[in-house]
Amino acid sequence: MPNPPDPVAPEGPGGAPGPGHARDDEPVHAPAAPYGRLVRIAYLVLLPALGAHRAVIASHTLAQRALAGRRGGTAGYGQSRVRLVRYCLAAPRRPWTTAGLPLVLGLRMAPRMGGADELAAARALSLLPPEARAVLALTAVDALPAPEAAEVLARAGVPDPLAAVRATSGPAALANAGRILRAAEFDPGQVRLHPTDLLRRRALTRTAAAVLAVCLLGAAALWGSGDGPAGPAAGPPGRTAPRAPDAAALRTAPFDRWERTARVDFTAWPARGGRRGDLGLLQRALDAWAGTADAPRPSTAADTGAQPPAGPPSLLFADRLDGVDVVLLHDGTRLARYTESGGGEDPPELHLARTDRADVTTAAAVALTRGARGTRYLLAPWIARTGARDLREPQAATRPIDTRAGVTEPVPAPAADGPCDTWPVLVLRSSTRIAERHGFLLTDLGGLTPVHLTHTPPPGAGVPAGRPREAVSPSALASWARSACTLRGLRDQGVRAVNDWVFARQDLPEGAGQAAWVCTRADTWQGRGEVAVRFQPPGSGPGTPGRVVARARDTAACTHVGRHVAAGTRWRSPGGNWFVLAAGSRATVRLDLGGGLDTSVAATTAAVAAAADTPVAVTARLADGTRTGPPR
């Protein structure tokens, strides 16, 4: 359904109206009107309430009605726009107003599939009131400043248009609404067609015929009975059950999309699995996500919303594994894994997890099933080699992992409790189309996506300061061998990645060897970070992470933003003498020790003899005079 030509309103850069757009009072005729802009405005306002298919049809219906005017005559563009906004805002209260031409039977319509930004924007739109969606539509499509958009709403009868304007400033996903909402994913004039569920349509037809027959028989009986006693009054109508997207409308990406896009994440995954054509299974998964009757209640990872998808999600996988049917869906910001046993022994389950900042590593694998033999993963199409190793054994070799159609054999998982004797991790290597010699580690912490492990080497290790590196070098493996068991405390916390940063090394007094100061940072999908600073004395092997000397939550510490850190602790030498030890990160030029010591040392590390109960207070000074200290 292509847009009609728009000679009256030529578009400027980015799809905004150019300087020749029609005046509010200029009469325009429907064939030559800026029809495409009106239907797009209507679609953005109607989309969350009606779903993509009904919103496409209703946007054309209301745009045509707005252009025609009350008596079928002509109207200026501004008048048509006000009338359109009024119609759209009234549509949820008056659903019959969206009925009319065009009429589409047997097909479902939706604009083409969008990327993560567009799907996140659709989700954010669904959480806004319709008046706020109207403001966004007017500012994005017609490039109206917010005050002018508020004026249009006021003319359309909105009692508090300024409140609608204020509501648009909240969602982060709509920060670039002017660009995102002008994309083809929100254009009801360019749509994809899908057949409806033919089996369901046939069943509904039979059901409708049966209901019609019963109604005719009842009417005949009532006609013949004369004025009999009235039956019980009808009760208030029940709340309408949520409607799930049709399985036939699920989106799928081409198998080679990951090779042709700079966005290498879940939006580039193709649909895989032997049951991806099983519409019955797929529909049950969609029903569960939509929360329809008898659907299982979803379990959610930390900071993950349970609301239904804003539109048809993408299908990533559907197959039977280890006696369980598994469906994997993605809506641009979340993964949904639906599982059911074919024999009905166990109830179906739905698990949701955030993935809105996934990349080539954090979108590299998804846990499909977990069992006594381990975890089966579905790997990204850009993974070329797969292996496993024990993080507690840095000298051991990586063993290969067999995969079939992207699904791994069961991979041993770290124990959730008990002795921490081993810590299995996945070792993956990307295709050379992604990067040369790009290997990385992932570990299972109980979520749908395994956690990416990285390492930042200590200063003076022959590498410049910078961002975390992949934890595959000998020094990285040696560091993680000591810290591996600390990962157990991060299970089921919505963690996306963990970095082990050796920010200082210190030669200890009395020739006691060299210690390391390590900041371990866990970043969540929500964006928050948690850090733990540890002092690691020498002479300890794998499984000895050292003593925690500082902790902080919701902090930027130990990142490229908070790259300056300092910490201190008390330490007893092998000879029995007590010292206060302190260390700062690479840019430290002086350490100030308080707690009664009142000592300054012009270095990145310090060791001062002190009593066993001396308080530890450390401040680091940088070359520019900035002060920093332990993470907080």
Summarize the structure.
The protein has 632 residues and is of the alpha+beta class.
Question: What does this entry look like structurally?
Answer:
Helix content is 22%, strand content 26%. The radius of gyration is 31 Å and the shape is globular. The longest helix is centred in the middle third of the chain and has 28 residues. The strands form 8 sheets. Strands 12, 13, 16, 17, 18, 19, 20, 21, 22 and 23 form a 10-stranded mixed β-sheet that branches. It has a 5-stranded mixed β-sheet with strand order 5-9-8-7-6, with helices on one face. The N terminus is likely disordered. The chain contains 11 helices and 30 strands. It is of the alpha+beta class and 632 residues long. The two termini are 57 Å apart.
Tally of alpha and pi helices: 11
The amount of beta strand, in percent, is 25-35%
Largest sheet geometry = 10 strands, mixed
- Estimated helix fraction: 10-25%
Structural class: alpha+beta
How many β-strand runs?
30
> C-alpha Rg, in Å?
31 Å
Shape: globular
Give the low-confidence spans: 1-33, 197-201, 213-241
